[in-house]
Design brief:
With about 375 residues, the protein is mostly helical. The protein is built from ten helices and six strands; from the N terminus they run H-H-E-E-H-H-H-H-H-H-E-E-H-H-E-E.
Length: about 375
């Protein structure tokens, strides 16, 4: 992969060449976009890739400082593309300088090696995103007042931190698609990873486009906490298979997160937006508060939560079966098999002769005189 020195260089533009040097190539592309800011001719184009677009500024009489809000638009695609390049570079750095060094010490099998890399990358991302999202929620009032999730909808104007958070989230999950090729993910693992990558892109982009950023943010933060605990527990498990207590905490929080997601989704789509003051459909205003959209959003959330619970139940059943199978040999080793009467009778004959126990002698029969 990128940033890794090899003694033998593969043929130019071959698959192995692209995989080994993809981070270097992406770094050059990102550097070229940054250098574009230095020239007046290219600065107006390069700035679309680097800075957040669609700034709206308001000035009020009560506050001397202007208030800056941001909306979304087509130029966000360029910004997402640039930060997707940054995510690829960071992915390569974490893999090269952290995960690969740990893998050499643990001497994991090929299957565990792939899962360890996956959990290591996701644990870093979930940790960063959780603290970033929690800091945004701590500054917002809708964490203590759920009615603000649908009040004054559409929420087409966002603060800088909220918009930048969503751009980075979409960019990260989009970068995970080419990483399936760059990291040489096994064929049997690709469908599983594609499922959750596409679900993240679908739900986060949907919340961003439909102006449901508040609901999406308050659902993402606890979900990321649960996923962080799972992948951290899996990392500890790979280092020592006796460390499995983290999975118990994850199982409890997983169910609570699913209930929280369903509860807030039903409240928002079923009650809050249904009773909003300005229902209607207007792309220009960013208003998507109609029955079809609400039902579609609620159905998408419920189906995703049902799928996640199904996977969770299957995972727990698999662990339970593995635990029971590991206990069976221990039980069989402790059980002493008692010989039957027939086996005891056979045991008294050795090579066709009668074998008597110690201290016993055969009974002599008296011969009859004829």
């Amino acid at each position: 992969m990128g940033l890794r020195k090899k003694n033998k260089s593969p043929p130019l533009l071959s698959h192995e060449f692209v995989i080994q040097n993809h981070a270097d190539a992406v770094s050059c592309l990102a550097m070229g976009l940054l250098l574009g800011l230095m020239f007046e001719v290219t600065a107006k184009y390069a700035i679309m890739f680097i800075t957040v677009q669609y700034n709206v500024t308001y000035t009020t009489d009560g506050r001397p400082e202007p208030i800056h809000f941001y909306e979304y638009g087509p130029k966000d695609v360029a910004t997402i593309f640039f930060y997707m390049l940054i995510a690829i570079i960071l992915h390569a750095v974490i893999q090269e300088y952290i995960l690969d060094k740990i893998n050499r010490r643990l001497h994991l099998s090929k299957t565990k090696h792939s899962k360890f890399n996956e959990s290591g990358q996701l644990a870093v991302f979930y940790l960063f995103s959780f603290f970033w999202g929690a800091s945004i929620l701590s500054a917002e009032e809708f964490t203590t007042n759920p009615t603000l999730l649908w009040k004054d909808y559409p929420h087409s104007q966002m603060f800088f931190q909220v918009k930048f958070f969503y751009i980075c989230q979409i960019a990260y999950w989009l970068h995970a698609l080419p990483e399936l090729y760059f990291q040489k993910i096994r064929k049997e693992d690709i469908p599983r990873q594609l499922h959750y990558i596409c679900l993240y892109i679908f739900h986060i982009s949907g919340a961003y486009i439909l102006n449901l950023q508040r609901l999406g943010l308050i659902l993402l933060v606890p979900h990321y906490l649960v996923e962080l605990i799972f992948h951290a527990s899996r990392l500890f498990y790979f280092s020592d298979e006796n460390k499995q207590k983290g999975f118990t905490l994850w199982a409890l929080l997983f169910v609570m997160a699913r209930l929280l997601t369903l509860t807030l989704s039903v409240l928002t789509f079923g009650f809050g937006l249904a009773r909003a003051e300005n229902p209607g459909f207007s792309i220009a205003e960013g208003n998507f508060n109609i029955l079809t959209v609400r039902i579609s959003c609620l159905a998408a959330v419920c189906l995703t939560q049902a799928w996640m619970m199904w996977k969770f139940i299957n995972f727990q059943l698999k662990k339970w079966r593995e635990h029971n199978q590991s206990q069976i040999p221990k039980k069989n080793a402790n059980i002493k098999i008692k010989p039957t009467r027939k086996e005891l009778g056979k045991a008294n004959f050795v090579n066709g002769a009668v074998k008597f126990e110690e201290g016993t002698s055969p009974r002599k029969r008296k011969s009859k005189n004829l």
